[in-house]
Structures are given as C-alpha cells and as structure tokens.
Amino acid sequence: MSLPRVVNIADLRRAAKWRLPRVVFDYVDGGAEGEVTLQENERAFRAVAFRPRAAVDFDRCNLRTKVLGCDLSMPVSLAPCGFSRLVHPRGELAAARAAGQAGVGFTLSTMSGYRLEDVAEASPSGPLWYQLYLVGGRAVAEQALERARRARFKALVITVDTAAAGMRERDARNGSEALMGGDKLAMIPYLPRLLAHPRWLTAYLLDGGPSTFPNIVVPGGGPMLLREARAALRRSVVTWKDLAWIREIWPGPIAIKGILTRDDASRALDEGAAAIIVSNHGGRQLDGVPAALRALPEVVEAVNGRADILMDGGIRRGSDVVKAICLGARAVLVGRAYLYGLAAAGEDGVSRALGLIRADLERTLALLGCGSVAELDRSFIEPPASWSAR
C-alpha cells in the first residue's frame, strides 16, 4: 500500500488513527490512568539538546552494532507487542519479516496471534528474541521455551513490571476487553464504531477474529483462548525466584525488561541477566514513574559495563535513538512507532517506519559530526542537570 505523504512517525500515527476503529487505535496509542508517564516518555527526548561538532567530513555513517550476541544493521529492535493481529491480520508475521529484511531485531510477545515457528519462518535471517510471560504456569512456559529454542530464537526477554494490569482508561471506555476477549456478544454495543471502519472490520472477520494464543498451550487443553488469557496474565507475575529456574531451561542470553532503578538493575545482574531493558512499559503500567530516558543514566551507572543496556518508551525519531545511545544505551526497542506502520500498511508500513528511523539516524549522525554509533557518548548531548545518575 502506498504511503506517499508519510515523512515521519507522526504521519504514520495519523494514518493508523484513520484506518483503525477507536477501540484498537486507543489500545495501541494509550497509556495508564492520566497518561502522565506516556507523555513524559516523549517529552524527555525534547529536553535533551545536541552538541554537534562542526567541519567534520566522512563518506558514510556506520549504524551497525551488536546486542545479546546478535548483529544489528542499526541499534534498533522491535519491541514485544501483544494482540498485534488485531492491528493487522498479518500481525507478527508482517512485522518480523520487515524487521528481518531491515536487519534489525524482532521480539515476539507471548501474547502473539501466530505460532512462534511461523514467525521464525517469516524472518529466516533476522535476529529473533522471545518475550516470556508465565501465562498458564511453568509447564506451559517450559514448552514454549523449548519450541523457541528449536525455532532458533536467540535470546529471551523477561518482562517484570506486570504485577498487576495498568488501568488504561481509554480501553475501559472503549470496551477493548470485549474485543480482545473474543466475546462477540459483548461487542454489540460498540458495533457502530467498528462499522465505521469497514476495511478493518472486513479484514478482521476474514481473519476469523483471532481467538487463541498458539504459543500458550495448556497441557491436555490446547492453545489458550483469548477470553481466558487476560485473567491468566494477571496471575503470571515473574519474580526474582523464577529467574533461577528459567536460567536452567533456557540456554541463551536473558534480558530483563521493566527496570527503572539502580537497585533492580543490580539485582537483575546478580540473577544472571545479560541485558537490562530500561522501560516503563510505554507508560501503560504504573503512571507517574519517570520517563525511561530519564531513568537510563542511573541504570547505566549501576550496570557499569557488565551487561548490554537497552531502553524503550517514547522513541519516534532516529534522533531519539541517538540521544538514548549518548546516555548509555547499546540499542533501543520501538513499539508504537512500528505498530502505527503496521496499522497503516501492514508489512510495507513497518518497513516504512524502520526506513524513516534509519534515515533520521544517518542524517543526525552526519549533522553531529559523528561517523559511527559506536563513537556516540555524552559529549554529543546536553541533558538537564537534574538527570545526573542518583
């Protein structure tokens, strides 16, 4: 699908808003409670100023990096996003294929609408990571991790900031639980809003209205139903004690996602984490916590080079990626940015989102007078004084 007037991620967001019914768009776009943290995630990047170096010339910027042993064509990976099959029928397949073609990582959510083996087949050359929730208990998780290992997923991402579901007020108003629970009768009051988007509704119905999570396979019961998964997710808290057991059954590196403080970063390293992902879940869990970018320096100081550090939350431009790397991240995860593209034009839209970020990265590095992402450090930026590591 052609997107001739799209020149930045904000344009993709507008296209997504036009194509999706409100219940789905707000699920992607919204945050918890008053959405203070959601807004702070983006505002934090605007608070950081660049310090460019003039009169510097080079032929080409080198964007390549390595994270968790995986080579990336630029310091970007796609974040785990559940229920993305509601955004577009090809969902994770389209996103993984676009990521693989771009040479960046893709993280598959436990709450995927497609089998992890099919996602691996869609992206035979791209780095694949699997994100784990303990939905269904340990036996279910063990089976999924063995499948992920056989399907050549390289790393495991464990999300630790979901002790309870965030109160996403847009979702409560829009009836998203009915849609994501697959309860067609409960969707009747919201039907006029769905009918206002016939293209999306037709695709949704032709797709059969995703009804199961094929990577959450209950022994003797088959794939978990959508209507069962939300309640099960609320009971699937990952604790530090679980990490010892997970390390025993997962042979690859492990990244801990959802860290905002030095104490938790240090504990994650003690538990064997190979990477820390500084994240507030995109502002979708506890509202009022710091922007992920603002929390980054504290975690970087605590880790002190002992593990890879990534971050997510609020990234809408390649210049945002540069600022995160200057503050100590090895790479970033993007979620909403690629979901807007997925909604707007499927696989082509995800490719467009990644292309926009890549072009921004190359241009920003050139204008900074820096020839490689490996050379970026705090000398290229001026963050607010209050952001010093505490």
Q: Considering the protein shown, what is the CATH homologous superfamily?
A: Aldolase class I
- Tell me the domain tally: 1
Helix content range: 40-55%
* Total beta strands: 14
Broad shape: globular
The CATH topology assignment is TIM Barrel
Derived structural class = alpha/beta
Physical arrangement of strands within the biggest beta sheet:
4-5-6-7-10-11-12-13
Annotation field: number of helices: 17
The whole-number mean of residue pLDDT values reads 92
CATH class category: Alpha Beta
Query: What is the CA-CA span between the terminal residues?
Result: 48 Å
CATH architecture classification name: Alpha-Beta Barrel
Proportion in β-strands: 5-15%
Radius of gyration: 20 Å
| Uncertain segments | none
Biggest sheet features: 8 strands, parallel, barrel
Please give a structural write-up.
- The protein is of the alpha/beta class.
- It has one domain (9-237, 314-382): Aldolase class I (TIM Barrel, Alpha-Beta Barrel), CATH 3.20.20.
- It contains 17 helices and 14 strands.
- The protein has helices spanning 9-19, 22-29, 36-46, 84-87, 91-102, 116-122, 138-150, 169-174, 176-180, 191-195, 198-206, 226-234, 240-249, 262-270, 292-303, 318-326, 336-368; strands at residues 49-50, 65-67, 70-72, 76-78, 105-108, 128-132, 155-159, 212-218, 222-225, 254-259, 275-278, 308-312, 331-334, 381-382.
- The protein is globular and about 65 Å long.
- The model has no long low-confidence stretch (mean pLDDT 92).
